[in-house]
Every structure is written in structure tokens, then in C-alpha cells.
Amino acid sequence: MRLYRDKAVVLRTQDLGEADRIVTLMSKMHGIIRAVAKGVRRTKSRFGARVEPFAVVDAQFYRGRGLHTVTEVATIAPFGRDVSRDYERYTAACTMAEIVEKVCVEQERDTEQYLLLFGALNSLASGAHRPEAVLTSYILRAMSIAGWRLATRQCAVCGRRGELEAFNVQSGGVVCATCAPPGSARPGEHTRLLLSALLDGEWSAIDAAAPGSLRLAGKYASAYAQWHLERKIRSLDMVRPA
Predict the structure, then answer these.
(1) How far is the C-alpha of 184 from the C-alpha of 198, rounded, in Å?
(2) 227 and 150 in contact (C-beta within 8 Å)?
(3) 114-165 pLDDT, tens per residue?
(4) Is 224 exposed, middle or buried (0-12, 13-18, 19+ CB in 10 A)?
(5) Each residue's pLDDT tens digit, 74-121
(6) Are 11 and 81 in contact (CB under 8 A)?
(7) What is the C-alpha to C-alpha distance for residues 8 and 68, in angstroms, rounded to an integer?
(8) Contact 191, 216 (CB under 8 A)
(9) How far apart are CA 99 and CA 235, in angstroms?
(10) Neighbours of 50 (CB within 10 A)
(11) Given CB 3.0 to 4.6 Å as the disulfide criterion, which of 37, 71, 151, 217 pairs with 156?
């Protein structure tokens, strides 16, 4: 069928011509969608304000040969309004949007990634947790869903649970003293346990973490994601240190 409907998060927009926009969305049932929203830049547009970045919408699309077309939009959650008021929240959301575009495939269903993004944006918009904590947890969990789960509780190489003294991106996470390659980082037990909590969403432990440990965990998570994605996450350059 040419027409279809789906719930989606608006990731970004790009001006097209004098009045249109290309909208990139992460949808619940159809993965990444790229569609034209016609006339949304006109002052009398019916749904121009509804397709702003980080809004969650219920939209109808017309399936074209190239780009699809947005024909109807209803707002489910205007997360962008609260996220855009704070620099840390906004840059975290930009980074999450960039990551989900990299790990998901256009027109291929990935409901788990959609729900993870929805929950992370909800946390940012409500101020439930520190933006840097939400972002780091999101990075680790998005990578895990995509098939690159960070090893935090046992050696990434041999599976050993003791003497987890090092961290190595290329090896897959924490490694024991025997398996640690030369030049491996030495994060310390507090940071290793924090990485595990961030991956599993243990928010009582995450919220109690010291800023320094959270900042270090964020660096490890970012390096891990960029290594496995084999490309730079540009939005990370905007993120302030914790």
C-alpha cells in the first residue's frame, strides 16, 4: 500500500526549496524514514511546528519511489520544547539522534531502538537524570541492541570474572590482567561498576556516581561506539564534560 501510518521520533530536518522540509524520523515499525513535509515553512502550515526535532509524532506517509511524503501529523510528545531549552540536554539529544541513524537501517523495523530512544528523550525532557548520564547509558544500550554489547562483568576475551583491571575498546570492554593488550586503560573498580550500571539502567547507582567517574565512563562509551561504528560521532564535539 502507498499510504502507511507509524509512530516516530523526529531526528532532524533539512530545508528543501522555498517552503518544504526533508524530515528524518526514527519510527516504531519502519525504522529510519526520510520524507518530505510540504509547505511546513509557511506561516499557515497545518503541521509545521509538529515536525521539529525530538518531537514524537503519529504520522501518515505516502510511499514514493525515493523520499516519502508526510501527509498527516499528530503530536504525541513534544520533547523538543523542553530539550531545546537546555544546552546539555540539547547536545545529548543531538548525539542520540545521530547514533540511532548510524545503527538503524532505513525502512527496516527496529522497535527496540525506537523505544530506547523514546525513553531517553523522555528522561532528558523531564530532567529525571543528568543529561551526561542519560547520554552515556543510551550509547551503551543502543550499541548493545545493535549487537555490540560492552563487556563489563567478565573479561571480553577469556570470560574470566576476576582481576578485571583494564579496559580495551578493540577487545570489547573490560579485560583481565592476563588478556589486557599493551596500552589498555586502567579505569578502576568504581568506573567499571558504573559502566555496568549504565549498560543495565541501574539508575540509583548512576545518580549517585561522582562527576569524575561519570565523565570517564562517558569517554569510554564514546570511544567504544565510534570504534565499532567505524565513524566519528560528530555531535559528541558539542557535548560539554560532566
Answers:
(1) 21
(2) no
(3) 999 999 999 999 999 999 999 999 999 999 999 999 999 999 999 999 889 8
(4) buried
(5) 999 999 999 999 999 999 999 999 999 999 988 899 999 999 999 999
(6) no
(7) 14
(8) yes
(9) 9
(10) 21
(11) 151
**Which residue, chain included where needed, has cell 559502566?**
195
Answer yes or no: are the C-beta atoms of 54 and 9 closer than 8 Å: yes
Place of cell 543529561: 131
CB 210 within 8 A of CB 218: no
Say what the pTM is: 0.93
State the Cα–Cα distance between residues 220 and 198, nearest whole angstrom: 12
Q: Where are the alpha helices (DSSP H) in the chain?
A: 79-83, 87-103, 111-126, 131-145, 189-200, 203-207, 211-229
CB atoms within 10 A of CB 104: 21
